[in-house]
Specification:
Elements lengths: L1 H21 L4 H30 E2 L2 E2 L2 H8 L1 H34 E2 L3 H7 L8 H12 L4 H16 L20 H25 L3 H9 L4 H30 L2 H5 L6 H7 L9 H25 L16 E2 L2 H30 L18 H8 L1 H34 L5 H13 L2 H11 L4 E2 L2 E2 L7 H25 L3 H9 L4 H12 L1 H16 L3 H6 L8 H9 L5 H27 L10
Parallel strand pairs: 3-4
Antiparallel strand pairs: 1-2, 5-6
Helix pairs in contact: 2-13, 2-18, 3-4, 4-8, 4-10, 6-8, 6-14, 6-25, 8-10, 9-10, 10-13, 12-13, 13-18, 14-25, 15-16, 15-25, 16-19, 16-22, 16-24, 17-19, 19-22, 20-21, 22-25, 24-25
């Protein structure tokens, strides 16, 4: 017995010695790891687990009742089909727009290339649900476009075809198809820059020697692109396509603004009010989670096992040639037309925000007069001013949380040997893959009735805590990647020298490391703050009482208010667009070309 105890103690000692040799598990590191496990467990794992439990565990037993209803019930089946259709069409549309754009800007040199390349990215600076406000003014039955078309069409009908009784406005074109095509148009115009960035990066990495070899063998340009270039671009293209599909599939704000309810995100939103009586909302969220994860899994499964590396000898530059006059003209025409169409939502929102009232923009192509009164109303009106204060409060505190957690996680990943490092990295980046509506709905259901002392966490009573946590969790990957890039580019020898002179690890981090990565932290913080200010899903679902509305929920509320609601909402949207534009410019100044690393999971 004594020998057995000695053997066990020796084995435990050897195991402890192995752990201490392999991992840097000091008291401080262990404490940080415990805190991170608790944080992610409570605010990431627990809400998702609660969703699955509520969807499957009904009346004390495991049941698939509501999943069967999705197949049997025609309305639910139509919602699933419409969401798939929107995701597929938006992905196809952005592909058709991005492939020629990438080919033009990677393969040709022409005057004004830099300016045009910047302009095609402009649609990213305004959420599509804000653009929907102005686009409805432009393209509704009696909007600017139909009014403009009525003049030539009525003239031809009256004077050429002798139809004096004809009026185009009696039966105008429904440009948005009851909201379906409006959602597709707005999402396509907003998301094509994301597809373009992925496709352009993939095309730039194609070895030009392979294309030249194919041309020497007699391949035409189209055959070359179909058989050599595009197959080598597939990993980059598919990465962009997955992002676009998931975004379009789970977008909540745009269908709501078009009052198009036959899609999964809107149905989930409508089930918030009966979340404890009807498990259908949980089942729909589970379907969204499964489809999202399945998309990422298939992308890894289908393309992860194939080989796309190229046998390039050393570094090869992009295969760029000077565009001939005819090609330059075509590039200018295609790009300018796309930029003009893509900027229509921005132009329409600006004009709406400058319109005094409905009477000044009815029956005419453009407003009869303009005013800045709605911009001043944003800072005077009690509701809008309260929403701005709320958003600033939520965003500032969520950014502070992101800053603290992002630095800790990035430091552990780059400077310490810890168990489960890959799991920590994957968990921190998981919010990029999860649609915002998933966590928002999970928070709303899982924290029902929660209270710590006199501090309410229940979003129905006081959503402040969950809004701050939700914003921070959703934007944490930006800060992690920003800090991670900074730590990677900072030599560890400086920290070792500091500790050799007697400084503690915390003092070294505070005095040496953080000042060297401050630019990365500022850039990540600016992006986290600005995107939190314009967060849609968390705001629409968690903020149920008007006193807690952030900016995006107030824009949604104002849009359905008569009189000046639409115009003040547009002014708030423009101010949000200015904020995001400024933030991206400042972050770009700090990070430069490394800024794209913040958005990679």
């Amino acid at each position: 017995m004594k020998q057995s105890l000695n053997f066990l103690s020796q084995r435990d000692f050897r195991f402890s010695e192995f752990i201490s040799r392999r991992y840097d598990l000091t008291a401080g590191v262990s404490l940080f790891l415990i805190f991170l496990v608790a944080f992610f467990g409570l605010f990431l794992v627990y809400p998702i687990a609660y969703i699955f439990r509520s969807a499957f565990w009904i009346n004390g037993g495991f049941k698939l009742t509501f999943f069967k209803l999705m197949v049997i019930d025609e309305t639910q089946r139509a919602c699933v089909f419409n969401s798939f259709k929107i995701g597929f069409i938006v992905t196809l549309t952005t592909t058709l727009l991005s492939l020629p754009l990438a080919y033009f800007f990677i393969r040709f040199r022409f005057t004004g290339k830099g300016i045009l390349q910047g302009l095609i990215l402009v649609p990213m600076i305004m959420p599509p649900f804000v653009g929907a406000i102005g686009m409805k003014q432009f393209f509704n039955d009696y909007g600017s476009v139909n009014i403009f078309l009525s003049y030539p069409i009525d003239f031809l009908a009256h004077h050429i075809f002798n139809r004096a009784d004809f009026s185009y406005l009696n039966n105008p074109i429904d440009w948005f198809g009851g909201g379906f095509w409006g959602v597709i148009i707005l999402e396509s115009l907003h998301l094509y820059p994301i597809m373009y960035l992925n496709v352009a990066a993939a095309l730039a990495n194609v070895d030009p020697n392979l294309e030249e070899a194919a041309e020497n063998l007699g391949a035409s340009r189209f055959h070359l692109f179909r058989t050599v270039t595009f197959p080598l671009m597939i990993p980059g293209y598919f990465a962009g396509a997955i992002i676009v599909f998931i975004w379009a599939f789970t977008d909540l704000g745009t269908p709501l603004m078009f009052d198009y309810r036959q899609v999964l995100p809107v149905q989930i939103f409508l089930h918030v009010n009966d979340i404890n009586e009807n498990p259908m909302g949980y089942a729909l969220v589970v379907l969204v989670i499964v489809l999202t994860m399945l998309s990422f899994y298939l992308s890894k499964r289908v393309f992860g096992g194939k080989r796309y590396e190229m046998m390039a000898r050393g570094h090869t530059g992009a295969r760029e040639t000077q565009a001939k006059p005819l090609m330059s003209g075509f590039i200018y025409l295609f790009t300018s037309l796309l930029i003009f169409i893509a900027l229509l939502p921005h132009i329409s929102v600006v004009l709406t925000s400058l319109t005094p009232d409905a009477g000044e923009w009815f029956g005419v192509v453009l407003p009869s007069s303009y005013t800045l009164h709605h911009y001043s109303s944003v800072f005077i009106h009690n509701d809008t001013l309260s929403s701005i204060r709320n958003s600033l409060f939520y965003s500032v505190f969520s950014t502070i949380i992101d800053l603290i957690l992002g630095v800790i996680i990035a430091y552990l990943l780059t400077r310490k040997r810890i168990p489960g490092k890959n799991i920590l990295d994957t968990t921190a980046m998981l919010p990029l893959a999860l649609p915002g509506i998933v966590l928002a709905f999970g928070y709303f259901g899982s924290f029902y009735g929660w209270r710590i002392g006199g501090w309410h966490i229940d979003p129905r009573i006081n959503p402040v805590t969950l809004l701050i946590i939700g914003y921070s969790v959703r934007r944490l990957p930006y800060m992690v990647r920003a800090a991670y890039a900074g730590f990677q580019q900072t030599s560890i020898t400086l920290e070792e020298a500091s500790q050799n002179l007697g400084a503690s690890p915390m003092r070294t981090l505070y005095k040496i490391t953080l000042p060297l990565v401050i630019a990365n932290l500022v850039a990540g913080g600016i992006l986290s703050f600005s995107f939190a200010m314009l967060e849609v899903s968390d705001s629409l679902i968690l903020a149920q009482k008007e006193q807690f509305y952030p900016i995006t929920k107030m824009i949604y509320s104002l849009f359905f208010r008569l009189e000046d609601g639409t115009y003040i909402a547009s002014a708030m949207g423009i101010l949000g667009m200015v904020l995001l534009t400024t933030s991206l410019i400042i972050a770009g100044r700090f990070l430069g070309k490394r800024m794209g690393e913040l958005f990679r999971a």
